[in-house]
Specification:
The chain is an alpha+beta fold and 230 residues long. It is built from 5 helices and 11 strands. The strands form 3 sheets. Strands 1, 2, 3, 6 and 9 form a 5-stranded antiparallel β-sheet that branches. It has a 4-stranded antiparallel β-sheet with strand order 5-4-7-8, with no helix packed on it. It has a two-stranded antiparallel sheet with strand order 10-11. α4 packs antiparallel against α5.
Length: 230
Amino acid sequence: MHVERSIKLVTEQHNIPKPSPMPEFPMKEWSVKIYVVDQAGNDHPANCFTKVTYNLHPSFEDKTHQTFVDPPFTCANEGWGEFEMSIDLFTTEKGGKTTIYHDLNFQSPRYEVVQSVTFKNPSQALLSILRETGPVPTDDDSKAANKSRKTNDLKKKKATYDFEKMADGLTKLNEEDLLHVIQMIHDHGTDDTYTKNDIENGEFTVDLFTLPDSLAKMIWDFLVEIKTIS
């Protein structure tokens, strides 16, 4: 399950009356804050993250890596130069770290940048937080997507058999041979094998594309053996 959210980085900066090591570049006081943006464009506290680490220019020396644990994870510093920083966003999930990049510049007193962040297989606790800022896939959606993906994989894999010919051959079976095939499907089908048994109308339906390879081969060989297909 993947959940995407828009993350807004708000940068503010202004000149301060301090001497600059580069006279042509005035000293600045700047800050970066992080918010989550919902579908309506509203800002929310980024409490989907447990901590945020800003990785600044090496000239910040022992302050190059700055970590904050409370939203909006404000990183405030002084300096004269523009640079690109990386920002590590952490969740409580195993391996739950996402890195984004942000261009710190002094072209405007305030500017906003929106980036997309993907949360992979979030826990129920994190899903509850993410639900506050937008829709999240349900467990049923996830299961349906997995089943659809498996079915598509099976379809791609089964080029070995002509399923149209197999389906045509099955319609030509007498009752005894048809019952034999149905029994084979019951005995050797998997959880991914789609079947429907309509007892009231005396109908049995199977999606041939969902048969495991071994069962597809058994049915194919049986139809060849009794000469309903060649």
